[in-house]
Every structure is written in structure tokens, then in C-alpha cells.
């Protein structure tokens, strides 16, 4: 007795056929109206195969297009051996599975010949959109941070960034004599009287927040109360510093003197008015004898960047002597010669401030804004209307 392997015409199912060396008995007689089952129907891929032993390679499972279908009434053929058949001349290509199917004896296995699907193009589109959204959020956040509105709410445009350690910018003021005060003004401004002033240098602008921030940062001096830490509000870097007392201004002057190696100080009231009236010209305004609309920061909701109204400069190029913020001077209150004003003792140590501020009304008859305007204030006062500028003696 011997065993041979037989394949059906579709070469899909293998079976073991046992043959004997002795002659075979005659086949059983079938009824005349009985038909033997067909050898095979359509080849079903991905179907369970039950093999008696061994393994089957993928090439064995490749369908033969010429033998895939057989006639249902074909007569059966009994064979005890089969010779290998040559491959068809033009087989239909079938992509082999990624791994060779392994079979164990007596165990069924399902072979799935469906091709693996690659990543959908929609996946790449979605990933690209996600990256673009992240980039947009980053840029949007940065622009939002840079475009915050100014805290003052006055519509002022953010000032350009100023480099640290701003150097002092002073203008030489030639000395001379002038008429201080006037005869037709409010009582504190009368009478006009002759005053001589020595040559000095004056800050071109009021001290701004950037320079004051340098002072705060280096000395750990308490910042103005409206600042967030040691830096001014964003967009107000070039605004004049405010919320500073008389002592704060002097502390700043000492720091800047040490930094620059010269002596800075607050101007006297006489020096301040001399510069504002263009010396011996005795102008009523820094820009000339007559009122000029828009030459100073007046009747506004907030201050403006220092030097933003150059048309209001004096003959030497000093700006903002009128409006923007009131300015501390070093002088104590006093009555002009010939004025019968009596100063009460509790005001003797106060200080004089000059120039008016951004909320001042030039049409106010009781305190018109001119180069002669003066007021007295407690030196400990800090408010958002008051700042300062510095001078130094000599050429």
C-alpha cells in the first residue's frame, strides 16, 4: 500500500489518496439516474483549508484562469498520482501576502489575500491643517500680546521701544536778564520784575518713563504706584514719568549725576520761566508772543510722548514747557517783589510747580496757561498730573 497526493483541477485543495499494490476492486455500481458530484466549483479565496500535513506555499494557491471553472456534469477521473502541471502562459498577477502562510498539521487556517490599505490622503490633509492651526495660534498670540491697547485709554499710539540706559539730552541756555511775571495776570503772577539768570543747560524734554525705569531697576527704588513692577505700562515708555514726589525727583537727579559724572538738579523757578519765555524776549509762550492752537498737550485725556509737539519748542529747542505734565522746581513759594500776598507758615516748605498739564484749559480766566503760570504744592505730593525735568549749571 502507498499514499499519493492528489490536487483538484483548481489546485486549491490537496488530499491524500491511498493506493494498494494489489489490483483494485471494481467500482460500485451507481444507479443510472445518479450523477457524480462535480470535481470542484469556483475557487474560494480566503476560505478555511484543512490539510492533512505539510504546508502550502502561495504559489500553490494561485488560481489558474483556464481551470478555475469546470462543468458541473464532467465525468470524474480517478488518479493515483499526478504529474506537476506547467504554469499558464499569462497568469493574472496577484500580490502575495506580506508573510507566507504557515500551516500546522491538522489545523485550519484562513488566508486573507486582500491588499493592505495605505494611509488615506485625507489623513495627510488633516495633519497639514492641524500644523497650520498651531502656527496661526502662535502668531495670533504674539500679535495679541504686541497690540494690547494703552492702559491710559486715551487713544495714544504705543511708543517705540527705547533702549536701556537712555542718555541725557540737554540744551544749552544762554544767560541773561528778563522780566519775570506780568502785570495783567492772576495775583500770584504779578508784578513783572527784572531777574538775571546765569547760563545753564536744560533737559530737552521732561524725564520719560524709560529713563526713570533705568533708575528704578538699578537702584531698586520704589516705582510709581501705577506701574506693574519695575516697568511702566506698555505703550507709555515715552510718556513723561508721573506719580513722583519732590524727593523722588531729587533721588533720580542724584542717580543720573553719578551715572554721567556731572551734577544734575531741579531748575529754579527763575530758570524755568527764563527758558519758557525765551529769555530777554519775554514771550508769553515758549513758541512766541501769541497763542498757537495744537502747540502743547492741553485739554487731553492722557499725557503724550515727550517731544510729540515740536511746534511748541522754545528758541533753544526745549519742548513741552507748557502742558503735558506740571513740573517740579527747586524753589519754595514766595511773593514777587511788590506783591502784598502773605504766605502762611504751613506753606513755607512747599515747592513751586510750573507749566500746567494735559488737562489744563488755556481759556481758564482764573489760571490761564502761559509761561507765567505758577502754583504751590506739598513736596510729598504724587499724582498723575505731575512730573519733572532736570538742569545742570554752566555751559
Question: How does this model look, in words?
Answer:
By secondary structure, this protein is an alpha+beta fold. Helices cover 16% and strands 12% of the residues. It contains five helices and eleven strands, in the order ββααββββαααβββββ. The strands form four sheets. A four-stranded mixed sheet has the order 9-8-7-10, with helices on one face. It has a three-stranded antiparallel sheet with strand order 3-6-11, with no helix packed on it. A two-stranded antiparallel sheet has the order 1-2. A hairpin with a 6-residue loop joins strand 1 (2-7) and strand 2 (14-19).
Strand content: 5-15%
Distance between the termini: 132 Å
What characterizes the major β-sheet? 4 strands, mixed
Structural class: alpha+beta
Quick description:
16% of the residues lie in helices and 12% in strands. By secondary structure, it is an alpha+beta fold.
What is this structure's SSE topology?
Blueprint: E1 2-7, E2 14-19, H1 58-61, H2 121-146, E3 170-173, E4 176-180, E5 193-197, E6 200-203, H3 209-219, H4 246-260, H5 269-276, E7 326-328, E8 351-354, E9 374-377, E10 386-387, E11 391-393
